[in-house]
Design brief:
It is a single chain. By secondary structure, the chain is α+β, with helices and mostly antiparallel strands. The chain has one domain. About 55% of the residues lie in helices and about 5% in strands. It is built from 13 helices and six strands. A hairpin with a 7-residue loop joins strand 5 and strand 6. Helix 7 packs antiparallel against helix 8. The radius of gyration is 20 Å and the shape is globular. The two termini are about 40 Å apart. This is Peptidase M48 domain-containing protein. GO terms for molecular function: metal ion binding; metalloendopeptidase activity. One of its GO terms (biological process) is proteolysis. InterPro entries: Peptidase_M48.
Length: about 325
């Protein structure tokens, strides 16, 4: 089943089709392997060994529900309760549509591999290993809009698409966090529900009479779920980055960054901005405006995502996951 493109790293989108440019220009990519100390060392001597991945710990036997956001769980149950969603989605989406979506993406992008943009390939391979899953294909596509999205086609290997402007904006660690975010969608099977809900909504609009009313109700449920799914995938990004400031920096740069000022941005100041937003929207009027502001958005506001990931990084649940990963790490892993 083909999934609707997940504009996972963009700012909150309203209901409009995804657009992408068709030309491509190469980007200069660099990657440096991380290193960790282990074993016995003499005084004033550090024993270091290079590792093939950017983070030290792999989450063995990681299940999607280990990091799924509570709102994602709740809203997924709501989607599953919609009668006939699965069957209608399959009926509305045929093999021709799948083929169009597949060819549109792979025909206008560059496939990343060991022999093509190998450093990006390494980042994806590492992120998938940390999340205990198979790495999808990765494509780089020319676009001035910093974004990344995931597509899953029935019977074919899923793939992730990175826009060139995102590659230019982010550091290597931040790019890997983006890839981990996209892997989170695949790990949690988000693509299936995105496809069914979007197709059902489009189909309902064509039904005479009350079709538009049904579609509007489904859209509200869909966008509520989309926002919660993004919070889950931000957690997947943290599991790979293992540093909340890396994930928050991605969100900050997407909110107001550019390559020329990226080194001047301050993560701590952005978190304080998030706290000020919470204070400003804490009144009854503020809550009303906040809900109205986000109701038709596919993504939570960047400051709210930053606050959420900061809080989860200090939660018992995250610390337990990290502890479990550390305990299962062997000398071969490091």
């Amino acid at each position: 089943m083909a999934s609707v493109p997940l504009s996972s790293l963009s700012l909150a989108h309203r209901r409009r089709p995804v657009d992408a440019a068709l030309a491509f220009s190469s980007s200069d990519l660099s990657f440096r392997s991380g290193s960790v100390g282990f074993g016995l060392a003499k005084k004033n001597q550090r024993v270091r060994v290079s590792v093939c991945r950017a983070s030290s710990f792999v989450f063995r036997n990681l299940d999607a529900d280990d990091f799924r956001h509570p709102l994602d769980k709740q809203n997924t149950l709501i989607l599953r309760a919609i009668p006939g969603l699965n069957e209608l989605g399959k009926a509305l989406l045929g093999s021709v549509t799948e083929q169009i979506m597949l060819l549109e993406n792979i025909g206008t992008s560059v496939l990343v591999s060991k022999n093509q943009l190998s450093e990006l390939h390494q980042l994806m391979t590492e992120a998938a290993q940390i999340l205990n899953m198979e790495a999808p294909d990765l494509y780089v596509r020319q676009s001035p809009v910093p974004n990344a999205y995931t597509l899953a086609i029935s019977g074919k290997k899923p793939f992730v698409v990175l826009h060139t402007s995102l590659v230019e904006l982010l550091t290597r660690k931040e790019l890997q966090a983006v890839l981990a975010h996209e892997l989170g969608h695949l790990k949690c099977d988000h693509g299936v529900w995105l496809t069914f809900a979007n197709i059902l909504t489009l189909g309902a609009y064509s039904v005479p009479g009350l079709g538009w009313l049904i579609a509007r109700n489904l859209e509200e449920q869909l966008f509520r779920w989309l926002r919660s799914a993004e919070l889950t995938c931000d957690r997947a990004a943290l599991l790979v980055a293992q540093d909340p400031k890396v994930v928050i920096s991605v969100l900050m740069k997407l909110a107001g960054g550019s390559p020329s000022i990226a080194d001047q941005l301050n993560v701590d100041a952005f978190l304080e901005q998030a706290r000020s937003y919470d204070r400003a929207s804490s009144s009854s009027l503020g809550l009303y405006i906040r809900n109205a502001q986000t109701r038709e958005l596919s993504h939570p506001l960047p400051v709210l995502r930053a606050r959420e990931i900061d809080e989860w990084s200090r939660s018992l649940g995250y610390q337990q996951l990290l502890k479990r990963a550390i305990q299962s790490t062997t000398p071969h892993d490091v």
